[in-house]
Amino acid sequence: MTESPANSTSRLQPLHEGVDLSAVDRSIRKRAGGMLLLDYDGTLAPFVEQRDRAFPYPGIREMLGELIAQHRTRVVIISGRAVEDLRPLLGIDPLPEIWGSHGWERLHADGRYEGPNFTFQQKQILDSEWDWLQKHFDAARLEHKPASVALHWRGQPAETQTHMQEVLGERWNRYRTDPALDLHAFDGGLELRAAGKNKGDAVRTLLHEIMEGDVVAYCGDDATDEDAFEALEGRGLRVLVRGTPRPSHADVLCPPPDALIGFLSLWMEGD
User: Fold this and answer.
1) What pLDDT shows up at residue 41?
2) Rounded to whole angstroms, how far apart are CA atoms 245 and 253?
3) Residue 27 domain flag
4) Final residue of a domain: which of 143, 159, 194?
5) What would the DSSP string read from start to end of 145-167?
6) What is the CATH number of the domain that holds 205?
7) Burial, 218: exposed, middle or buried (Cβ in 10 Å; 0-12, 13-18, 19+)?
8) Segments forming the whole domain that contains residue 34
9) How many alpha carbons fall within 13 Å on the CB side of residue 81?
10) Mean pLDDT of residues grouped by 10 in the chain (271 residues)?
11) Pairing with 184, which of 193, 195, 248, 260 sits 20 to 30 Å away (CA)?
């Protein structure tokens, strides 16, 4: 039985005045076309200590596969992870379009790949910092992506986390004012990446590629998704996928996984 508008969005919580959940429901159900933009870690998949085991919540993979097969929704993953890391985790065939490394990589739905294009100076610094990380931390805690390097401390004892943060902070504080680099604290670690691209840039590019009037939504959970939320202001629905609210440019709160599955189900009904 089809849910009523009140029930289909009942698990979403408005984050500011002016959000009409019934209007959200109607726009999704009645849309002629649409684009669904999705972060990965913390949004489609829970945070886990073993990053290569961060599989989507149960049911998510099948729902995304069905949306792709219906051909009316353009499904796009926009993640801080590298494209190659996302392929096995998503486990979808065919894959959706993927923007990896905070927008530095783009894998089109037809398989065409566009890699990062940053400066030689940025590459030199990232390579140097990667060498330094390998000498000072357990390899299992390190991540080398096409446009960044990162240290993860999720799951470590509090004292160990504090020590890792202090050592890395002392090393990377020098880059806080470097215009060529961005220093980003994420949920469970710290990342140094080439400046010049973020998730907002990916969203702005995608908005130029769709038809006027297409319904757009972006689902994300952490600070890097705020760039995407800002880019979507006035143009689409911004969904904060978290159990509890935080200061955000998003329009609605969507606790995972149940409310997220409900939101994707609503989107599928529109197809």
Assistant:
1) 95
2) 7
3) yes
4) 194
5) ETTEEEEE-TTS-HHHHHHHHHH
6) 3.40.50.1000
7) buried
8) 14-116+198-270
9) 22
10) 48 91 89 91 93 95 94 94 96 96 96 94 96 96 95 94 95 95 91 96 96 92 95 96 95 96 89 60
11) 260
* Residue 1: inside a domain: no
Number of structural domains, the chain?
2
pTM to 2 decimals? 0.90
Q: How far apart are CA 49 and CA 47, in angstroms?
A: 7
For residues 38 and 81, membership in a common domain is answered with: yes
Q: What tokens were used for 267? A: 């989107």
Same domain, 85 and 58: yes
Which structure tokens are listed for 8? 């289909």
- In DSSP notation, the chain reads -PPPHHHHTTT-EESSTT--HHHHHHHHHT-SSEEEEE--BTTTB---SSGGG-PPPTTHHHHHHHHHHHSSEEEEEE-SS-HHHHHHHH--SS--EEEEGGGTEEE-TTS-EE-----HHHHHHHHHHHHHHHHHS-GGGEEEETTEEEEE-TTS-HHHHHHHHHHHHHHHGGGTT-TTEEEEEETTEEEEEESS--HHHHHHHHHTTS-TT-EEEEEE-STTHHHHHHHTTTTSEEEE-SSS--S-S-SEE--TTHHHHHHHHHHHHH-
Dihedrals φ, ψ of 244, to 5°? Answer: -135, 150
Q: Are 51 and 143 in contact (CB under 8 A)?
A: yes
Tokens of 147: 């446009």
C-alpha 203/C-alpha 87 separation (Å) is 21
pLDDT of residue 167: 96
As a whole number of angstroms, the distance between CA 271 and CA 99 comes to 24
Length of the chain counted residue by residue: 271
- Residue in this structure with the two tokens 């849910």, named with its chain if needed: 3
Q: Are residues 145 and 83 in the same domain?
A: no
